[in-house]
Amino acid sequence: MVGVRAEELVETLRIELQDVGGTAWWARILTTLASQTGSTQFRFVGRVADEVRYASATFMSPTPISPVPPEEEWAPGMTRSLDEVVSEIRHDGWTEAGRGNEPWSLTFERN
Fold first, then answer.
1. φ, ψ (nearest 5 deg) of residue 71
2. Does 44 map to a domain?
3. In whole angstroms, what separates CA 51 from the centre of its chain?
4. Does residue 3 belong to any structural domain of this protein?
5. Local confidence pLDDT in tens for the 111 residues of the chain
6. Exposed, middle or buried, 94 (CB in 10 Å: 0-12/13-18/19+)?
7. Is 2 within the bounds of a domain?
8. Full domain range(s) for residue 87
9. For residues 5 and 36, what is the distance between their CA atoms, to the nearest angstrom?
10. For the chain, how many structural domains are there in total?
11. In this structure, are residues 72 and 83 in contact, taking their beta carbons and an 8 Å threshold?
């Protein structure tokens, strides 16, 4: 790019909660067949624009009647999965730039 210095280019990464079964029709079938009755498999993803660059280990959460975000108390492994993906993101040079209401609502930036 003409007239733009490299230090001015900043990437933004957001961590999102992802229903693994919602990523593709075949993933939904495999998740349903492999999970305990009434459970949904989740993971955290680090996304830059539309590109997933990081993905955590998966964890199970009971499927609620209405959409409710999982909590560690009834979704064991959630905190560990989040900690692992955040550690990997920081290791790659990303700096935390913001937090939202949920524990995983994190934004990172890097030049």
1. -130, 150
2. yes
3. 12
4. no
5. 555 565 678 999 999 999 887 555 454 455 455 555 567 888 999 999 999 999 999 988 876 555 677 887 878 889 999 999 999 999 999 999 999 999 999 999 999
6. buried
7. no
8. 10-110
9. 52
10. 1
11. no
